[in-house]
Amino acid sequence: MNKNELLEEVLKEVDKHPEIMSRREAFKYLTMSPLAASMLASATVGTATASASDAKGKIVIVGGGLAGMSTAARLTNSLSNPDITVIEPNPLSTSYQPGQTLVGGGIWPKSELVYQRDDFVPSGTKLIKGTVTAFDPDNNKVVVDGKEEVSYDQLIIATGLMLNFQAIKGLTGEITSCNPDNAEAKKTIGTDGVHSIYFQDGSEATWAGIEELIAKAKKWKEGEPKLQAVFTHPNTPIKCGGAPKKIMYLTHAQLEKAGVRDAVELTFYPNGGKMFGVTEYHEAIVEQFKARGFKWNYKHNLIEINKATKTATFNHHWTEKGEWDEDLEEYGVELKSKHVEVKYDFIHVTPPQKAPDVVAQSKIGSGKGWIPVKKETLQHVKYKNVFSLGDVVAVPMGKTGGSARKQYKVIVNNVISAMEGNQEAIDKTNAKYAGYTVCPLVTGIGTVMLAEFNWTKKPTPMVPLDPTQERWIWWLLKVYLLKPMTQYGMLSGRA
Amino acid sequence: MIKQLSTITLAAVAMVTFSACAGDKSAETKTYSKTTAEVYQQSCIKCHGADGAGKAEKKTPKLNDRTAGELEQDLFDVKNGGTNQSSGTEHEIMEHNMQKLIDKGYDYDVKAMAEYMYGTFKK
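YS: structure for the whole thing
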């Protein structure tokens, strides 16, 4: 689809709803932004090829998902003699993961998500279809599939993370989001009301699960106990922190559309004690939950699912006033916990997530597994020729495509400086990663709250609109524009 | 692939928006009544020890097994109650204590404190 066709599609959608917004108004929103922003954008698109560096060195990128492959593309654009190897076992690694919410919510078919890795390998880049099984940073090499040694001058780690379903008793599998090698997870997830949009096949099954729930709800009669739809959020950092809520909003919207919302109770069980780290967005979400009649119970961490009895067990934890603490000169607090059993008809599981074991257990990883880097430069804390980005890197709030989009530009500049032997540029003059991320929080069919923030935890909206409002225009952005931007702009190293 | 690149131009519309993020607006200057060394030596040390090894009787975790960057993120979590949307943190007790300590004047810049701790523990 070319740009005019795509724009026409968005505007056609606008035309269908003149009561919300005129075509002219939509166009205004889409192009509105501060002057500096547009300058930044044009600089971002244009300069990569304009000033190609003559720096030399062998670059190995572990992981060819969105983060790794976009980095390969941008390095290819930025170097006059690129020597780049990408190591990636998954044939669907470049699939469009942000769309999994829309598939799970019945908005898109799964085919909208599926993209072949081999179509995105930049020209001249070598692809090794294998898995790194060992890191040896002291000798500048990695091992592929337990046998092939690959040496490097500069290493970029973008392995992504593991969805650790098997950490929940009763569930199985430790998989990645879009690897078709997921049979183990599908043994327990995707049937009998247990679902997860966190993997591609699971997102398709989730929509089937919501349709089953709707069918059950149609048979429900006034006075019967309501059907229970349960949505979880684990105690680990997760990819796309908004997704556990987005699927809840879309389930609600589909139940309403089918005219059966009254038959179902929707409850959110997060491990944490709030909806969002940024106060403004937290408050906005609480209001959105109230307006939709959602329930929520904080500090509940899913630990077990019994599919036979359709029961989920949570570890509910809280603090109570403790003894006088002489060091603190105050009363301290004590942790308390108990198990809570919850019956479900439909449960959406957000799995605990972790760094791949090969990373966590190597010298490259940290105590918690994630790769420790200086968060502004994304350079490894110990190894100066190792960089990391995407879901596996230990930066706060970084596990989104929007974060990767900011990180990969920083990495490309810094890797080139490293090849030029210019550590000072990395530390001082090169552009820093500021921790920005974006969460287009889908709050219904046709509405999105565009939550943008950085690690100062303040909203950082890029247009002068109240960022806590749900807007249809951001829905259009999420449903029509973000995918082409990601798949063709970012994966070619230009957006 | 090349043909599809033409969609970039449209995506640029979205990009204009997405590139405009606030970047370094974060640089609010805040002054603290004590230096990081004073805060650590007068308060933190009571439970975490001079070497960051922790104290069994206080059930304080070991802090000398992590990098300055990791310490910075832990301290940020402790002061701000976590950065993930609804994941919560592992520091519930310290989050409570930290708010009390801030009230008593033991506040600090997380980056400076992380570097101080990392430098002191290593010796």
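YS: worth flagging: The two ends of chain B are 55 Å apart (CA to CA).
IM: good catch. Also Residues 1-27 of chain B have pLDDT under 50 and may be disordered.
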